[in-house]
Amino acid sequence: MTRIVTGTATLCVFDPALLRHKLEDDCDWWSIPGAELAAVNAGQVAFFNVGGDGAYDIALHAELAEPHVVVHLAVVSGRVFIGAGEDVTGGGLEPDTAYGGLFVDVPAGSYRLQARRDEARISLAFVPDARSSNAFGDLVRI
């Protein structure tokens, strides 16, 4: 289990290779709801709005029996970052684990990212899936 502290009430999960095009964008590009939703629907990143700043424990599982939300996600490099929303690629910076977060190695492909929240514990599972895009009409909350 890993603890992640967010000051933006948001956790993110993404393959940094898929957001490299955002490197020179504003560091808070994703705080614009339309930009956040477009990146999530393209399968480039999963943003989980948790409703409050603070510390959250992240637990990884093979699969979740009753996820609260599922986000389809593409992985091209085989390396996924899980961290605070403020650590997403942008403003000339890419994520690292100096201020929290973790990198997880998964085979390149498309995934059904299952998420479940129980208070300050967020459970995640990367389940292989043929689909790598989403059709959310609003931001993802958990």
Automatic annotation (TrEMBL):
Pfam families: DUF6386. It comes from the Bacteria. InterPro entries: DUF6386 (IPR045665). This is DUF6386 family protein. It comes from Janthinobacterium kumbetense. The lineage of its organism: Bacteria, Pseudomonadati, Pseudomonadota, Betaproteobacteria, Burkholderiales.
